[in-house]
Amino acid sequence: MGTDNLFHKRRERRARELMRIQKIRAAYDVILILCEGTKTEPNYFKGLRSHLRLNKESIVIPKRFKGNDPLSLVYTAEEEFIKELKGDPEKQGYDHVFVVFDKDSHTTYNDALQKIHGLSKRYKDKFKAIVSIPCFEFWLFLHFKDATRPYAASGNNSICDNVMCDLKVHVPDYEKGSRTVFEMTYPAVEQAVSRAQLLERRHEGVGTDNPSTKVHHLVLYLQNFKAKT
User: HSE of 79 in the Cβ direction (CA atoms, 13 Å)?
Assistant: First the structure.
């Protein structure tokens, strides 16, 4: 008898939790953020989600699934999007899918952008590429200083090693995968957004994208999302 009662209580709790999630998803947009990096980028956006007090059910930041290049990441995003739609013709699935990746030295970078473009056309602009050139650390660097000089590999340093060197001038303790990456940088997020926007306008006139980042678009989206909710 006691075992049966325990089973029924657990089932009731699961049913209540499912109903709670469904209510949240019905009331607000549901966002998927899929990151190329397995630690730094997810830690940053989870920190932002927590800071803005947004629901995990509304802002979904899963662990990586498979692949370690931009194109594989986009295919994973497509699979997750379709999985949400399967078996329920009335279900809207994710309202937006943000795919966060770097240009770095990836050979599939341009293919990933083309794939995102195709998905965006097919699914009514729900897919968006949030890219950083050369890498995500450039977005972090913009919290501390403006930058227009193109990055390149030099000596034994990769292109992203050189971004890391510049970032460490301002955050000496920074390491890839840091759990405190959000806390270390967010106090200066307004400056980072302004600098990223300025770079975008500059690049439109000169036809280059090194260095640049679109992370500010996602940050502003989440801040506006908080304001709406």
Answer: 11
Burial class, 132, CB count within 10 angstroms (exposed 0-12 / middle 13-18 / buried 19+): buried
Provide the pairing of β-strand 59-60 with 127-133: unpaired
Alpha helices in the chain (DSSP H): 2-27, 40-51, 70-85, 109-122, 136-141, 159-170, 181-185, 189-206, 215-228
CATH of residue 42: 3.40.50
How many folded domains does the chain comprise? 1
Instruction: Please tell me the distance from the alpha carbon of residue 97 to that of residue 111, in angstroms, as a whole number.
Output: 18
Domain membership flag for residue 222: yes
State the pLDDT at residue 228: 82
Looking at residue 4, its pLDDT comes to: 60
**CA 29, CA 51: separation in Å to the nearest integer?**
18
Whether 189 and 142 have beta carbons less than 8 Å apart is answered as: no
**Structural domain contains residue 48:** yes
Low-confidence winner among 20-24, 89-93, 106-110 (lowest mean pLDDT)? 20-24
| pLDDT at position 229 over 90 | no
Full domain range(s) for residue 165: 28-228
Q: Collapsing DSSP states into helix, strand and coil, what is residue 93? A: coil
Tell me the residue type at 151. Y
pLDDT at 80: 92
CB–CB of 217/196 below 8 Å? no
Domain presence at residue 22: no
